[in-house]
Amino acid sequence: MLSMSRRQVLLGAIVASLSGDALAQQVLETPQPIDAQTLSAYLDVLLPADDLTPAASALNIAGDLVEFARQAPQFGQFLALGTRWLNETGRGPFHSLSLSDQERVVAWMSSADRNTSPARFFLLVRLTGIEFYYSKPEVAVAFGLNTAPQPAGYPPPWQ
Amino acid sequence: MAVDGPYDAVVIGAGAGGAAAAWRLCGHGLRVLILEAGPRFDPSVDYHLTNPDWERQLFPTKPGSQGAVSYGDLGTLDANDADLASWNTVSGRVFDNPTRVPSAAGYSHVQGVGGSTLHYVGEAHRLNPDSLRLATDHGVGSDWPLGFADIEPFYVVCETEIGVAGAPPKGPRWPSTDHLQPAHPLSTSARALDEAGGRLGMAWEPNTRAALSEPKDGRPNCNYCGNCGRGCPLGDKGSADVTFIRKAEATGRLTIWTGAQVTKLIAGSDRRISAVSGLRDGLAFEVETPVLVLAAGAVQTPRLLLANDVANSSGQVGRNFMETLGWTSTGLRAGLANTHKGLPADAVSWTFNSPGSVPGVVGGCRFTASTQETGLLGPVAYGSRIVDGYGAAFKAQMRRDFGSAISVSGTGEMIPDARSFVALDPTQVDAAGVPVAQINSVLTDHSLALLRFMASQCRALLAKAGVEEIREEFGSWDSFTATHAFGTCRMGSDPATSVVDGFGRSHDIENLYIADASVFPSTGGGEAPAMTIQALAIRLADQLVA
After folding, report:
1. Is B301 helix (H, G, I), strand (E, B) or coil?
2. Is B65 helix (H, G, I), strand (E, B) or coil?
3. CATH architecture classification, B9-50+61-545
4. Would the CB atoms of B50 and A150 count as touching at under 8 Å?
5. Mind listing the pLDDT tens digit for each residue in B83-130?
6. How far is A2 from chain B, CA to nearest CA, in Å?
7. What is the ipTM of this complex?
């Protein structure tokens, strides 16, 4: 038995979230750029710095997502749609808003109806952001993990 | 050193069955050619477990490492069964379709030298002796044309050659255990399930595992990284490439052609196959052979036979397809730690394995400690599936929860059904022009009843283990995931109702043998099939030279 592939689930969800959405259709028909500054600020709300680990921006997670989007064009269009929407939520681009305003936007997105584009953006960027962020050695050490499972493994005993 | 032709036998497929058959035939002095459609994997290059981003990588794919498959009817969902839906606390319902759909894994297999043993976790199971007579004893399915005593000596051969660790209680299934390596230590989550099972009347024991607890044949013992499914870079896992293939190549009598897809079985005189032909890395080849062993698995084997319209006077080729009926529940238990460390599927419960042991259901099932097997091995899996939220609170919660996940899985018997079969896809062909295999697999009322029992038992186990809230469940109701596939060229005594005899020999073609799980008349009660495939393949090889 195997676990489900996260990436396949992600891409499936992206396709599902784009179909039937009028705004998404506009983006699909006319590709838009991803606002990397807004994406980075948004990821920092999801994954801020704390005592043990850096913020997403310090590890260039936004850059990882943009690079991943080059291999998955629909994901790139999804990021473009989402960052454009984020920039229209306040009195200026999302990355220029105060942290408290950014947090208010993200809080609303996190509790929105899951069938809406903002909620899907929240879920999918959270999933992909977590995948890249928690794959970084700088983060793994906070869990007491080896940088990789091999070659040391985890010899017993385990308590 | 490999040999050039002519060959005494040609084997199609280098997976569990093909590798074991080739090893035995080489041991009998035969010159053997394996035609493998997929590539070789180099663990030191292809596997990712030393990379910092290891958790983003599953078992690798390479050109040709997946067989051509499409999906037909997988069944329609009844909303009344939604208690069996797949979901997790982060994403909610994973599949939201009116019909059952293939998961990302779908027909989960590896085409290559070693086959699906490259990504299996290495459970080394023997079939329940009582599971071989479902038709006679319970009036469903089909009997095996052989008894457990016919297979048992070959289980011993496999377990000895591969290096199986475990400490099963002696009994009809295990008349002797002296040849086994010591059992592996149990992970923290397996110990918790063992204790919980005791309070539910379920007996748990260390699983029998094709992973070395002591060095053997130049292979090291396992170091418990938990990632058998991503490919074992050490070689302690008993995949066919480091066991039967390696030993067969050491005889100097085995040749392997990778990237060699057989497309035609060429008939000779007197009900025999005289040669096979196909494409090797894009170039045509043809090889004569006095004996052909087909070991391409329960999907590609019937595809090849159907595409060539051979060995099917019974009309049973492709019929009786049986998949893996599975269920998994996961929760977090406060106080539990380090559940990502240890051997996947390290503990097993056979309490409900015998036919008739589950109320209202004919076939049996088994339960496994599955925290590592389901991939809860690093923080990516936790944050993606079982720890919700965001921000500083989420990051702190991740550090508190990591290592406390506990998963339990049930795997159960499938009963053959007319709606479940492998056919040639009516529209899709592969690059060689051969129609792809179309999988049709529908859950019956029996399957749903057993699935519901497994789900109920998994939930009860987690509750008894101290889990207050389940965070993830997935199973066969809304998605098709088959790591094990069976039945599409079943064995039997009657040529009118079966494809091969009890030794895997075609009823129609004298020199054609089948050595994979397509010959299984029934699935057993959830046992992993690799060891049985290999035992039958070795038995077949002995019969072939007798």
Report:
1. helix
2. coil
3. 3-Layer(bba) Sandwich (3.50)
4. yes
5. 999 999 999 999 989 999 999 889 999 999 999 999 999 999 999 999
6. 6
7. 0.92
Asked if A150 contacts B225 with a C-beta cutoff of 8 angstroms, the reply is yes
Q: Where are the beta strands (DSSP E) in B67-186?
A: 69-71, 87-88, 92-93, 101-107
- Asked if A2 lies within 8 A of B340 by C-beta distance, the reply is no
Residue B375: closest C-alpha in chain A:
A3
Token pair listed for A101 = 């305003």
- B138 vs B214: CA distance, rounded Å: 42
CB contact under 8 A, A1 and B411: yes
Give residue-wise pLDDT tens across range B277-309: 999 989 999 999 999 999 999 999 999 999 999
Q: Which of A135, A133, A140, A23 is nearest to A82 (CA)?
A: A23
H helices within B112-227, ranges in order? 134-138, 148-162, 188-200
Task: Judge whether B124 and B239 are in contact, CB under 8 Å.
Answer: no
Q: What is the pLDDT of residues A81-125, one digit of tens each?
A: 999 999 999 889 999 999 999 999 999 999 999 888 899 999 999
Alpha-carbon dihedral angle through residues B178, B181, B187, B191, given to the nearest 10 degrees: 10
DSSP code at position A124? H
Residue ranges covered by each domain of chain B: 9-50+61-545
CA distance B92 to B98: 16
Per the CB < 8 Å rule, is A45 touching B402? no
Distance CA B107, CA B482 (A): 5
- The whole-model pTM stands at 0.95
Distances (CA, A) of A59 to A102, A148, B60: 20, 18, 26
pLDDT at B341 over 90: yes
Joined tokens for residue B383:
């944050």
In order of B2, B19, B306, B432, the CA distances from B26 in angstroms are 11, 10, 29, 31
Select from B188, B390, B474 the Cβ nearest to the Cβ of A158.
B188
- Taking an 8 Å cut-off on Cβ atoms, the answer to whether A1 and B481 are in contact is yes
Residue B200 pLDDT exceeds 50 = yes
Q: Which residues of A touch B399 (CB under 8 A)?
A: 52, 142-143
